[in-house]
Amino acid sequence: MSNIYRDVNLSQVSESDIGKELKVSGWVENIRDHGGVSFIDLRDMYGVLQVVLRDAALLDGIHKEECICIEGIMEKRDEETYNPKLPTGTIELEAKKITILGKVYQQLPFEVMTSKEVREDVRLKYRYLDLRNEKVKDNILFRSQVISFLRSKMTEMGFVDIQTPILCASSPEGARDYIVPSRKYKGKFYALPQAPQQYKQLLMVSGIDKYFQIAPCFRDEDARADRSPGEFYQLDFEMSFATQEDVFRVGEEVLSATFEKFAPEGYTVTQAPYPVISYKQAMLEFGSDKPDLRNPLRIIDVTDFFQKCTFKPFIGKTVRAIKVHADMSKGFHEKLLKFATSIGMGGLGYLEVKEDLSYKGPIDKFIPDEMKKEFLELAGLEAGDTIFFMADKEEKAAFFAGQIRNELGEKLDLIEKNAYRFCYVNDFPMFERDPETKKIGFTHNPFSMPQGGLEALKTMDPLDILAYQYDIVCNGIELSSGAVRNHDMEIMVKAFEIAGYDEEVLKAKFGALYNAFQFGAPPHAGMAPGVDRMIMLLRNEENIREVIAFPMSGTAQDLMCGAPNEVTEQQLREVHIKVRD
């Protein structure tokens, strides 16, 4: 059956079509008038074709970005006009007839070919035009390919694709919910799921052994470069009769396969098994629970050593240090000090190691002579090294050290190029104390199994209890979080009690899980790598909105469709809501 608009798309034309009459359709990317002969660059989703117009009248009324249909004869270009950048660069269509299918009625807000240089709010308002830009469009097509591969890979590994509800019950844990008022039940609300957490656990209770979905998640959070406000997608999966290590193997297999297939040419990908770093080790060696393993620098703890020295700013503080072997000018030290003060540090102490292994620097005189060799060995120092010091309360010292490590890695060009470096971070604390209320609450996922089980909950200081929780981190970006789930009713009740929720609250807020766990729940575990972040990394984009077809702005607005917007009084009445002044 013939198509009234086109015989072929623009990826299907080639030199084999020379001499044929063809009908093609697309958008006018560019118009060039060479005096007597004019040219149109015609673009569709699949490619670009040069069209030559030897009859000037054909160009009448034609504007850039109009949608047109062209009938003509395919011919060979003159050799000197070949365009090696285009697959169609050796051919052109001589136009005989042009029909306007979709007219442009007003001035374009920007040039499509250079839309990535336009202010983001304008791009998002006219996103349908922005998506005509080849680079923007290719990100979205690439996303489709990655998601298709993820689905295929998970199915191949025996996982079943199941969709869980979008309208669900509000949960007291995690980020802010988006709530949806009920028309039928006055004063009651649904919530959009922050993750399919409870539903996937209920699937395990139901006997579904391996579940996955490309799951939409909704959280009322502020935007960041690596976080889209409002909604995001994750490769959510869960397994019954599984341990932490079983989940690790699945995560490694699917992520390694995906990154090896879709990584830019010349990139290397961490081979399984991925390094496993405890939360405690990560905070010490990297100053972050999202370690970037492309940076070779490591942080060491020198607290005990400096408690034996006479440098007062270090005494009674946690002291972290980073050694670097590089030539650094006075100007470099000044810039690094400026950075240190910009993140809240009072200063940045350092020592340089001279050829005779003596020290040069303001802290040298505070280290007793008999202890100088001990410090060389402790820090593994060699001639030409410089070692920097960060001192504060433990949490701040770790943060400062992590920031200085990142800055040194960037400014000294130490970051490994063209690499995706994965690791697991595990053994997160189960509980933490709120700095304001001083109450103990869950650190991350409340449904995680505590290490040591019920015995640990009954006998240990809650702040010392670790959870079977884990993250996957790639190049300093958290790609995934997951956990071995708490499937034991008695353990769950005790864990929530420690976090300040009695059994009645557990029944009320997590009634489905509470009830389901009365009926033979299997051990289960899972995780959920972020699809948007995965694609952002694979495309080397700095902003996550570049890999989402219709993202919200950084201020959580849909500038194109005007959301959030006002609704009518009738709509508000139907859901029993009154807007307060």
UniProtKB/TrEMBL annotation:
GO terms for cellular component: cytoplasm. Transmembrane segments: none annotated. It is an enzyme of class 6 (ligase). GO terms for molecular function: aspartate-tRNA ligase activity; aspartate-tRNA(Asn) ligase activity; ATP binding; catalytic activity, acting on a protein; nucleic acid binding; transferase activity. Its EC number is 6.1.1.23. It catalyses: tRNA(Asx) + L-aspartate + ATP = L-aspartyl-tRNA(Asx) + AMP + diphosphate. L-aspartate binds at E173, R219, H444, R485. ATP binds at R219, D220, E221, E478, G530, V531, D532, R533. GO terms for biological process: aspartyl-tRNA aminoacylation. CDD domains: AspRS_core, EcAspRS_like_N. Residues 197-200 are annotated as: Aspartate. HAMAP family: Asp_tRNA_synth_type1. Homodimer. Aspartyl-tRNA synthetase with relaxed tRNA specificity since it is able to aspartylate not only its cognate tRNA(Asp) but also tRNA(Asn). Reaction proceeds in two steps: L-aspartate is first activated by ATP to form Asp-AMP and then transferred to the acceptor end of tRNA(Asp/Asn). This is Aspartate--tRNA(Asp/Asn) ligase. The lineage of its organism: Bacteria, Bacillati, Bacillota, Clostridia, Lachnospirales. The gene is aspS.
